[in-house]
Amino acid sequence: MSAVPSHLQYTKEHEWVETTSATNVVRVGITDFAQSALGDIVYIQLPKIGDSVFADKVCGEVESTKSVSEIYAPVSGKIVAINSDLDKSPEVINSDPYGAGWIAEIEVAGEISGLLSAGQYLAITA
Question: Model-level pTM?
Answer without folding.
Answer: 0.94
